[in-house]
Design brief:
Number of domains: 1
Radius of gyration: 19 Å
CATH class: Alpha Beta
Enzyme class: transferase
EC number: 2.1.1.14
Strand content: 15-25%
Distance between the termini: 8 Å
Oligomer: single chain
GO molecular function: 5-methyltetrahydropteroyltriglutamate-homocysteine S-methyltransferase activity
CATH topology: TIM Barrel
Number of helices: 12
CATH architecture: Alpha-Beta Barrel
Largest sheet: 7 strands, parallel
Keywords: Methyltransferase, Transferase
Strand order of the largest sheet: 3-6-8-9-10-11-12
Helix content: 25-40%
GO biological process, one term: methylation
C-alpha cells in the first residue's frame, strides 16, 4: 500500500522526512580533498552526483515518496544557501554557534549590499535531484527568510531602515520560490530555528539582552514570510520545519509551542509544519488546538534523529492518537523530528541506524493511515 494521499493539487506524505542525511565517507573524503586542492570542482561534483543518486534510490527502496539529496552538497543547513544570495557574504567569524555541550565551527554571514536572488547554485542542485527522483517527488530544503535576520549581520549603511531590509528580504525569497518552481520544484521546505527560540523563555531573555524585542520579531518574521509565499503557484507545496537545534545530537532551545502557536498556525499562509515532538523539551500537543484550517498539514516529529535506538512502535501510535484529539488524523503525518545532519559533521548514529529510523517511520505510517 502507499503512504501518500492526494488533496487538492497537492500530495500529503503520511511518512515524510525533514531532509538532511548523514554524509557518507565518500562525500566527506571528497570534500576534504576539494578543500585541500587535491581534486577540482567538477570532480567533486561527479562524486556528489553518484552519492546523491545512491541515497535517492535508498529512500525509494524504504518507501518514502518524497526524496531529498540529503543536503550532500552543503556544509550547513542554512549558511550555504544564504551566503549565495545577492548582497550576502559568508565569513569566518572566529566563533561557532553554541549548543548544549558543543559548539559548531566558525562561520557567519553578513548583508553588505541590497538583497536579491540571482543565479543561485542551488537551482542546479535541485535540477539534479529532480532528474534522479523519477516518479517520486523531489523535495528541496532551504532556510527560512527569518534566518538571514536571525543569524546574519546587516550593514546599517546599506539598510538604515530595517523595514526596508525586511521588504527586500521578502521580495528576494519570493523570487527564489518562483525560481525553484520554474526549475520543477513542487515541494519546498523552509527550515527555521528562530521560532523555537521564541518558544523559550531562556532564549527570549538572551534576545532581549542583545536589544531584540521578541514580539517585534514575531510580527516581522510572520509578515516577511507571508509576503514571500504570497501568490505562489497553486501546485507548489511549502512547509516549514521548526527546529530546536541539531548539531552532533545536541540542542539549543526548550519549550512547547504555546507562545507562538496561535500566530504560526493561524496566520502563516503555508501548507504544513514539521514539529519536533521527540522529547519532553517539546511540550505537549495542546498548542495544536490553534490549528483551525482544514487544509493545514501537521507532521509530527516523534522519531528522534539524534540517536540510533528505535522507538517503541506502540508508543508512537499512542502519541499520534493523542495528537489527533486536537487535529484530525487526516491532517497528521509522521517524520523524524529533524534531519540527521544539519551540518556536514552529522549526528551520533550510523548510516544503517539512519535508514532503520526512516523505515520505522514508513512502517508505522502504513499501520496508522490504512
Amino acid at each position: 500500500m502507499t503512504v501518500e494521499t492526494k488533496g487538492k493539487n497537492q500530495t500529503t506524505f503520511r511518512a515524510d522526512q525533514v531532509g538532511s542525511l548523514l554524509r557518507s565517507d565518500v562525500i566527506k573524503t571528497a570534500r576534504l580533498q576539494s578543500a585541500d586542492g587535491e581534486i577540482i570542482f567538477d570532480q567533486l561534483r561527479k562524486i556528489e552526483d553518484k552519492e546523491i543518486a545512491r541515497i535517492v534510490e535508498k529512500q525509494k527502496e524504504i518507501g518514502l515518496q518524497a526524496v531529498t539529496d540529503g543536503e550532500f552538497r552543503r556544509a550547513w543547513w542554512h549558511f550555504d544557501f544564504l551566503e549565495n544570495l545577492v548582497g550576502v557574504e559568508g565569513f569566518w567569524s572566529g566563533n561557532g554557534i553554541q549548543f548544549h555541550q558543543k559548539q559548531t565551527k566558525s562561520r557567519a554571514i553578513k548583508v553588505t549590499s541590497k538583497l536579491d536572488f540571482g543565479n543561485h547554485p542551488m537551482l542546479q542542485d535541485y535540477q539534479y535531484l529532480h532528474g534522479v527522483a523519477g516518479d517520486h517527488t523531489a523535495k528541496f530544503t532551504i532556510p527560512s527568510p527569518s534566518m538571514l535576520h536571525f543569524r546574519g549581520e546587516v550593514d546599517g549603511s546599506v539598510y538604515p531602515d530595517e523595514e526596508e531590509f525586511f521588504a527586500d528580504l521578502a521580495a528576494t525569497y519570493k523570487k527564489a520560490i518562483q525560481a525553484f518552481y520554474d526549475a520543477g520544484c513542487r515541494y519546498l521546505q523552509l527550515d527555521d530555528t528562530s521560532w523555537a527560540y521564541l518558544c523559550s523563555e531562556e532564549q527570549k531573555e538572551q534576545l532581549r539582552a542583545k536589544g531584540l524585542n521578541p514580539d517585534y520579531l514575531i510580527k516581522m518574521y510572520l509578515q516577511t514570510l507571508n509576503k514571500a509565499v504570497a501568490d505562489r503557484p497553486e501546485d507548489l507545496k511549502i512547509t516549514m520545519h521548526i527546529c530546536r537545534g541539531n548539531f552532533r545530537s545536541t540542542w539549543i532551545s526548550s519549550g512547547g509551542y504555546e507562545p507562538i502557536a496561535e500566530q504560526l498556525f493561524g496566520h502563516l499562509n503555508i501548507d504544513g509544519f514539521f514539529l519536533e515532538y521527540d522529547n519532553d523539551r517539546s511540550g505537549g500537543f495542546e498548542p495544536l488546538r490553534f490549528v483551525t484550517r482544514p487544509d493545514l498539514q501537521i507532521v509530527l516529529g516523534l522519531v528522534t534523529s539524534k540517536f540510533g535506538e528505535l522507538e517503541n512502535k506502540d508508543v508512537i501510535k499512542k502519541r499520534i492518537e493523542e495528537a489527533s484529539q486536537f487535529v484530525p488524523l487526516d491532517q497528521l503525518c509522521l517524520s523524524p523530528q529533524c534531519g540527521f545532519a544539519s551540518t556536514e559533521e552529522g549526528n551520533l548514529l550510523t548510516e544503517e541506524q539512519q535508514w532503520a529510523k526512516l523505515q520505522h517511520v514508513v512502517d508505522i505510517s502504513k499501520e496508522v493511515w490504512k
